[in-house]
Amino acid sequence: MTKHMIEAGKPATKLRSEAVEVLLERGLIHQCTDIEALDARLAEGPLTAYAGFDATAASLHVGHLMPLMTMRWLQKLGHRPIVVLGGGTSQIGDPSFRKDARPLLEERQIAANIATIRRSVERLVDMEGADGALLVDNAEWLTEFKFLEFLRDYGSQFTVNRMMTFDSVKSRLDAQMPLTVLEFCYMMLQAVDFLELAKRHDCALQVGGSDQWGNIVNGVELGRRDGRKLHGLTVPLLTTASGSKMGKTAAGAVWLHPEHLSPFGFWQFWRNTADADVARFLRLFTELPIREVERLAALKGAELNEAKKILATQVTTIVHGPEDARMALEQGDALFSGEGELSEPTHQMPLKALADGLGLLEVVVHTGFAASNGEARRLVEGGGVRINNQIVDDPRRRIATGDLAANDRLALAVGKRRKALIGFV
């Protein structure tokens, strides 16, 4: 099977389905196993599609918004989404494009992670009604397999030769890093997920990140051997106009769950979008009509800041709800006008980090005010960073417990308009 790459935003033939048209228009399709066949199937009537997320952390992050927005659009256009929370696959961990193995998690930690992830997912897709989205845990079927039974039924369906052609495997081997049999089997488990969902829920489409291409193709091919016509679609890698991977900092990710990043901290992340990224992010992460997106994208200079506020408020509404988005906008307006101060933490860091020697540069990067330690260093040396309203110009400065207020908070500001209140817990 060869991947059908999307060129110039259009497949080779005239579109038949509104779903493919919308997803292309929004920039949400990177690869598809056969886009003409998928387009024809979507035009026939409602289709069930799934996206899976392993519970390797207590929250999803903005990188996960791409497949989730794809599922959200599919649902709006009459199709049914399934969100798979990987209670089974999380016990192994996806090795795709990683240089080393993921740390193995205990089942108790996986269950706790799933509980918090579930709350975020339930905001992003509609769970109500007979045709509402389904949330399932792949532990439901994966933990039922016996080892010899699994090898007999599925081991013969995959060849090592084929699996080693996928970039996710080749990248690890080319780097001469070990790849355990446990990790190597992960793609088999994800393929079995797709087949099980096809059998249980008539699921015909898997949506995933571009790093999931090999795993998705395995599932499509396994379905074909079972006599099923399945489809795979990947979303683009989430990068900024500068080419850097978006949404992660040296200290962690831009989380979707409010316990890990406050709604205002989330709003502020989007408000600080680079000018060159505004148009693309409005297409990807909002549901504004394309004409409105184009109007906002055409704004220049100071007017573009209004587009950034709209972007931030729209995304925060989708992820956290309209009330939190409204409050974040009001707080942002006050802060960016220089007339307000933060009252609730926008970011969280572990209190024990202070004992380990927490550097100022690390804190600046953690808040998203700098993309790297080098950029943070330049901000500090330029006198643009303040701790508790005091300018700090020493990049070697360490944060100590004495810098915190009585409630274990630290006020950080970069320039006049970017402010964060960090809670240490």
TrEMBL record:
**Compartments, as annotated in UniProt:** Cytoplasm
Q: Does the keyword Nucleotide-binding apply?
A: yes
Q: Plant heme peroxidase family profile domain location, by residue?
A: 127-228
InterPro entries to which the protein is assigned, alphabetical: aa-tRNA-synth_Ic, Haem_peroxidase, Rossmann-like_a/b/a_fold, S4_RNA-bd, S4_RNA-bd_sf, Tyr-tRNA-ligase, Tyr-tRNA-ligase_bac-type, Tyr-tRNA-ligase_bac_1
Reaction(s) catalysed by this chain, per the record, are: tRNA(Tyr) + L-tyrosine + ATP = L-tyrosyl-tRNA(Tyr) + AMP + diphosphate + H(+)
| PROSITE patterns, per database record | PEROXIDASE_4, S4
- Pfam families under this entry? S4, tRNA-synt_1b
Where does motif 'KMSKS' region map? 245-249
Instruction: Indicate which residues the UniProt annotation says bind ATP.
Output: K248
Q: Where is this motif: 'HIGH' region?
A: 55-64
Q: What is its EC number?
A: 6.1.1.1
Q: What is its main location?
A: cytoplasm
Give the keywords, sorted: Aminoacyl-tRNA synthetase, ATP-binding, Cytoplasm, Ligase, Nucleotide-binding, Protein biosynthesis, RNA-binding
Q: Which residues bind L-tyrosine?
A: Y50, Y186, Q190
Metal-binding among the record's keywords? no
UniProt subunit comment:
Homodimer.
Xref: PANTHER family: TYROSINE--TRNA LIGASE, MITOCHONDRIAL (PTHR11766:SF0), TYROSYL-TRNA SYNTHETASE (PTHR11766)
What family is it from?
A: Belongs to the class-I aminoacyl-tRNA synthetase family. TyrS type 1 subfamily.
The job of this chain, per UniProt, is described as:
Catalyzes the attachment of tyrosine to tRNA(Tyr) in a two-step reaction: tyrosine is first activated by ATP to form Tyr-AMP and then transferred to the acceptor end of tRNA(Tyr).
Question: Could you tell me what this protein is called?
Answer: Tyrosine--tRNA ligase
Q: What organism does this protein naturally occur in? A: Roseibium denhamense
What lineage does the source organism belong to? Answer: Bacteria, Pseudomonadati, Pseudomonadota, Alphaproteobacteria, Hyphomicrobiales
Gene name as annotated: tyrS
